[in-house]
Design goal:
- Helices cover 12% and strands 38% of the residues.
- It is mostly beta strands.
- β19 and β20 form a beta hairpin.
- It is elongated and about 80 Å long.
- Residues 3-11 and 135-164 have low confidence and may be disordered.
Length: 471
């Protein structure tokens, strides 16, 4: 437990300190009082072993319950900032502006890593009666509302970006970070960079908060509000988070009822038409790999991050889900935080009826997605048929046992490359693309997709499956 270490100075500053050992609760909640006339609160913290021996994250709750999904959540910065300020008109990145309700607030410490000998934490809380604006804080609610109207985000399902085109493949980036978590740039600057890279749409997915959505955004590319839900047992990205909402992250795989809780988070996302995707399911950083249960309603999974080739372990993770009969969409992402890393590798092409948030999300939900190595490479064309029936990526093909399934791939940009045809996770054949590559087999239940490679053997594209049902 933390206790006051010094007397308040003019009733404006309190210092808390304490010692924590490994094996304790993942999240520690430290109460402090905010008076009725407070205009801003500044919180700074420090801890022993801040060279990597210990890693402590920071979040904040205003008066109210600390239960999962509570509306009292005020923001989160993880380990990106050692000092944050929350005020009536301005707030540090990752935190919500607005009135400061009087009463008991809580600093949240996320005990991401605690040294074997424990960690000493000191927190300084300063209450101000007047707010000092800074140039690096969040816009006011009024300016946010004006920006929403001017950018067409008054309603998420009606975001008309450039003139809608029927059944178009749109280039998208689904995992981007800004200054509101551990990224380096303002949301608008991230959007401008994405537009220059050739993206039609982006999803900004800061860790455990959606505060970026309160900032003005340029009219292009289409902006989808997202969140990277950073749990102690793996990360997930949610695309299409409702205005002002957030998806809670405080779920450990060891918590009683964790499976029901995770399924509840997915259901909450679905109620607002959002999608829930597992991020980097097999990774090499602590807490990054997915150790939670696989949610019943999981929509998607990352199989390719940034410039690296698709990860075999993550493709295998995806195939295990597909083999159970689930229709789970694979995506490729940049997981971009800052330059000089490339924002445009990897990416997706989503086939949608129009360039609107609702249509793009629906295209991902339906599996109308091709994972691409970058933002600009033309996607391969894919067609599959049996008997008189035809289907495209993400569709279901109804066949009889007497039918022959045929898939054809054309990739004019890579005539000297080759394509692997994958049936139920097994590579069936590999052939040169040329003017088009074709694979046929007797019809049976399962799924068929294609992996496309350039002449040098580097991966270019991975299609989502065509699913086959036997009537």
């Amino acid at each position: 437990m933390l206790a006051p270490a010094t007397a308040p100075h003019l009733q404006t500053t309190v210092v808390l300190q304490g010692h924590f050992m490994p094996g304790g609760p993942r999240y520690q909640y430290l109460p402090f009082t905010v008076s009725a006339d407070a205009e801003a609160v500044t919180i700074s913290y420090s801890y022993s072993g801040d060279d990597g021996a210990s890693v402590i994250d920071l979040g904040l709750f205003e008066p109210g319950p600390l239960t999962l999904g509570t509306a009292s959540f005020r923001g989160y910065s993880g380990g990106a900032q050692r000092t944050i300020t929350v005020g009536r008109h301005h707030a540090s990145p990752g935190y919500r502006t607005g009135a400061l309700p009087a009463g008991t607030w809580h600093v949240m410490l996320g005990m991401y890593k605690v040294a074997p000998e424990g960690v000493d934490v000191q927190i300084k809380i300063t209450e101000a009666k007047e707010e000092a604006p800074t140039s690096s804080t969040e816009p006011s609610r009024a300016s946010f509302a004006e920006a929403r109207v001017s950018s067409g985000r008054a309603k998420a399902e009606a975001v008309p970006m450039p003139t809608a085109r029927e059944s178009q493949w749109y280039s998208g980036s689904l995992h981007l970070h800004t200054k509101h978590s551990d990224g380096a740039m303002d949301p608008a600057a991230v959007a401008e960079m994405a537009r220059s890279a050739g993206f039609d749409f982006i999803a900004i997915t800061d860790h455990n908060n959606t505060i970026h959505a309160r900032e003005p955004m340029p009219p292009s590319p289409l902006h989808i509000v997202g969140e990277e839900v950073t749990t102690p047992g793996g990360h997930a990205t949610v695309w299409g988070v409702a205005d002002g909402a957030w998806i809670d992250f405080r779920v450990s795989p060891r918590d009683p009822g964790a499976a029901d809780t995770i399924n509840g988070l997915v259901a909450a996302a679905h109620r607002s038409w959002a999608l829930f995707s597992i991020s980097h399911p097999v990774d090499n950083c602590a807490g990054c790999s997915w150790e939670q249960i696989i949610p019943d309603g999981i929509d998607a999974v990352e199989i390719w991050q940034n410039e690296k080739a698709p990860r075999d372990a993550e493709v295998a993770f995806w195939d295990r889900l597909l083999r159970t009969g689930r229709h789970v969409t694979a995506v490729g992402v940049a997981d971009w935080h800052r330059s000089p890393n490339r924002m445009d590798m990897a990416a997706v092409r989503v086939k949608a009826d129009s360039l609107t948030e609702r249509a793009v999300i629906d295209g991902i939900r339906r599996g109308h997605v091709i994972v691409m190595r970058d933002a600009a490479t033309p996607p391969p064309s894919v067609s599959a048929s049996c008997g008189s029936h035809a289907a495209g990526v993400g569709d279901t093909l109804a066949c009889t046992v007497a039918d022959t399934i045929t898939m054809r791939i054309a990739a004019p940009a890579f005539p000297d490359g080759h394509v692997d045809f994958i049936w139920n996770a097994a590579r069936m054949t590999s052939g040169l693309i040329g003017s088009g590559a074709t694979f046929s087999m007797p019809a049976s239940a399962g799924y068929l997709r294609a992996h496309v490679y350039a002449a040098d053997g580097s991966a270019v594209a991975i299609t989502n499956p065509v699913y086959v049902e036997i009537r």
